[in-house]
What does this fold into?
Amino acid sequence: MNHSHNSDGNHAESPQEAHVSSLKKFIPLITIFAIIILFTVVMQLARGGFDLLFSMGNFMGSFFIIFGGFKLVKWSGFVEAYRTYDVLAKKSVVYAYAYPLIEIALGVAYLTAFELLITNWVTLIIMVISSIGVARELAKKVQIPCACLGAVFKIPMTKVTLFEDILMAVMALIMILLM
It folds into this structure.
């Protein structure tokens, strides 16, 4: 394998090595999504038939509980990162601290089918607002840490972050329209 060296004499990554290194940063996120999908499929199989609303509720519920839980592990680190890009968190530290609790509450509401119309509207509003903040930061083309898994894992903010927010908003909207 032909390796180049930079001016310090240190190994410089090839484009392929840089790509693999970049993908490794997302292993926690990929693993969590795989677990959420597995949970959703198992719950659907246990139910004995396919129900789109039930599946989306399970996916969203487990997503919010897991992601909210990771944010609480290093709560102040999450708040610090989140306030760099979220529209509401920039204006209110209270909102930034409350956000993981809101996610967990939404998760519980989805998994217990509690007041789903209200739950979906709250999710839609929060995820649209979050998407705006993420899109603004991505447009700046400056790499900042994503607060999606709190401060536990160092994952850069990318289009994946925006996709997550938009996915949750779209799922909430679909659930509202199908109710």
Q: What stands out?
A: The longest helix spans residues 116-140.
